[in-house]
Design goal:
The complex is a heterodimer of chains A (440) and B (100). Chain A is an alpha+beta fold and 440 residues long. Helix content of chain A is 44%, strand content 22%. Chain A is built from eleven helices and eleven strands. In chain A, helix 1 packs across helix 2 (51-82), helix 3 packs across helix 5 (263-297) and helix 6 (304-324) packs across helix 7. The longest helix of chain A is centred in the middle third of the chain and has 35 residues, at 263-297. The radius of gyration of chain A is 36 Å and the shape is elongated. The termini of chain A are far apart. The model of chain A is unreliable at 432-440 (pLDDT under 50). With 100 residues, chain B is of the alpha+beta class. Chain B has a single domain (3-67, 75-86), classed as RRM (RNA recognition motif) domain (Alpha-Beta Plaits, 2-Layer Sandwich). In chain B, helix 1 crosses helix 3. Chain B starts with a helix and ends in a 14-residue tail after the last strand. The chains are: A alpha+beta (440), B alpha+beta (100). Chain A binds chain B through residues 42-45, 48, 50, 52-53, 56, 59-60, and chain B through 14-17, 19-20, 95, 98-100.
């Protein structure tokens, strides 16, 4: 077998392989012999047709088959012989196929990039250190109170924050217009849900009072027929309600369905939640730093075949997410370029991590996997079922195993890293996480 | 008979176990020919069509098979089969033209 390999830029390789004629010939004649014995040709009893005729009938088809098989098998032989690791399958560029001659073919493929640095020893990693203070718990409880706010009717002048039930009718130059009228409309002063000047005009109104408010709509108002117009609204205030925040007492605590339904119990529950969140956040931050370091140290070119596959996967995942939200899958942007950066990053990281795992011979620790599954199971109605499902078939665990393995890799890498603790408040630590936004 | 008409004489090569056997054994090639073709005509036709020299021709009339469609008896057309023996060293390759 003669092999020549040339690089075609980056990770691309072009390989030309010549297989000796005997290898092709022996395979072809073996298959012809087999057909000869079972051939059905008109004018001949089954299996009695002469080789000459069988060959004429089948040789072309068999040559194709044999060539395909030989290329398939010899490609991996050749690649292994050359010490190449192909990423994605080969594409046959050209081939020379003729009975009695050497089979020569040219394939192009990509190879996996070489990962140079498999550790982050000596690199600086910043590990956030934080603690949950009473103030953090107070803040969370405050936001819980906001969520359980109730409205109570009052007899006093309206002020910002109150909710008003109003009827209104708008007139533009003395004529009422489409959509300018409503009855029993609920308006929270200060939400700025209506045009500027409307809510301000109602501050100080009493229940039952009727007010005339003149509003100048801004020139860029979204309803074109109103933009820039002056409109007079006649508003009747039916009632005024003020927000009432529940007191933090045992009854409030009971509303959350926790076991220890007392204020102290609620506080400790909140603390536990926040601490879990803090732990997760610290891990995520450290992990992201480790991953970024790995990516920086290894400027990996990414094989296009893997990149394409990853883009496909990202699009599918995006579709799944949309479907989970009840939106049609078709809303996913199909523009592949949008996903390219993310896909490259993921593939590169995957390659590096796989190489680390391989070179250190790491395997997912079963006890950690078990713990992980159990933790995930907690949020399901029947945890045991969830656990059993995962352990019923080995490949169902693989996703969780890879998560655990990823964590183990981070742990191992961190041992060699130069870790600096940085103290920060909890607020600062979780500053960007979305579930904080409900706190006003 | 004109040269043009000679092209009409040979209908098809007859390929079968027997025809293969006599080809190998006696240099004889078997054709199905027009029923009104005579031995000399067949000889000239084969020589013209395949550019070979013919030694002898023997012919046989083949009775068409009786085939029935349900109750109705039917009969296939009778035909004529010609065994054409070539001079030593000559050959006709039916198959060659068909290979891709």
């Amino acid at each position: 077998m003669q092999i020549s390999v040339e690089a075609t830029g980056g990770l691309g390789r072009r390989m030309t392989v010549a297989l000796p004629a005997e290898r092709l010939e022996s395979e072809v004649s073996a298959r012809l012999q087999r057909i000869l014995r079972t051939s059905h040709l008109p004018g001949f009893r089954p299996g009695k047709a002469p080789m000459r005729l069988v060959e004429a009938q089948y040789a072309g088809k068999i040559m194709e088959e044999v060539a395909g098989d030989l290329i398939q098998s010899s490609f991996y032989e050749a690649v292994a012989g050359q010490g190449l690791k192909p990423a994605g399958g080969p594409t046959v560029e050209s081939r020379l196929l003729k009975r009695g001659e050497a089979l020569q073919y040219t394939v192009v493929f990509e190879v996996y990039p070489e990962v140079q640095r498999l550790d982050i020893s000596g690199s600086r990693i910043e590990r956030p250190v934080s603690g949950i203070t009473d103030a953090d718990i107070d803040r969370t409880i405050e936001s819980l109170r906001q969520q359980r706010m109730t409205w109570t009717g009052v007899q006093r002048a309206a002020r910002a924050g109150d909710r008003l039930v109003i009827d209104f009718e708008g007139r533009k130059g003395g004529v009422s217009f489409e959509g300018g009228r409503a009855k029993g409309f609920r308006l929270v002063l200060g939400d700025r849900s209506l045009v500027d000047g409307f809510e301000e005009g109602l501050v100080g109104a009493m229940p039952g009072e009727t007010r005339n408010i003149t509003v100048q709509f801004p020139a860029d108002y979204r309803d074109k027929s109103l933009a820039g117009q002056t409109v007079e609204f006649e508003v009747r205030v039916n009632s005024i309600e003020e927000p009432v925040l529940p007191n933090v007492d045992d009854e409030f605590a009971r509303g959350f369905g926790i076991k220890d339904a007392t204020v102290a119990g609620l506080r400790s529950e909140v603390r536990a939640n926040l601490e879990r969140e803090m732990g997760d956040q610290v891990r995520v931050r450290v992990r992201d730093q480790v991953f970024n370091l790995l990516l920086q140290q290894n400027e990996l070119p990414v094989p296009a075949a893997l990149e394409e596959a990853e883009i496909d996967r990202l699009i599918t995942v995006a579709g799944d997410n949309l479907e989970a939200q009840g939106l049609p899958r078709g809303r996913v942007p199909q523009d592949r370029a949008r996903y390219a950066d993310e896909a490259r990053r993921r593939v590169a990281l995957g390659l590096i991590l796989a190489e680390i795992v391989r070179s250190r011979g790491m395997v997912a620790d079963p006890s950690q996997v078990r713990a992980r599954v159990e933790r995930l199971a907690e949020s399901y109605e029947s945890p045991q079922e969830f656990i059993d499902w995962h352990y019923a078939e080995p490949n169902r665990l693989s996703q969780i195993e890879s998560l655990v393995l990823e964590e183990q890799v981070v742990t191992v890498l961190l041992e060699a890293a130069d870790i600096h603790d940085r103290t920060m408040s909890f607020e600062e630590l979780v500053g960007r996480s979305p579930d904080r936004q409900e706190t006003r | 008979m004109s040269d043009q008409d000679l092209f009409q004489v040979i209908l098809a090569p007859h390929v079968s176990e027997k025809s293969s056997r006599v080809a190998d054994k006696n240099r004889q090639f078997v054709f199905s020919v027009r029923r009104d073709a005579t031995k000399p005509v067949i000889k000239r036709a084969v020589e013209k069509l395949f550019s070979v020299e013919v030694e002898t021709v023997t012919v046989t009339r083949v009775k068409g098979k009786v085939k029935r469609q349900g109750k109705t008896p039917g009969r296939r057309q009778d035909w004529k089969k010609a065994y054409v023996r070539l001079k030593p060293g000559q050959e006709i390759d039916f198959v060659g033209g068909q290979t891709k």
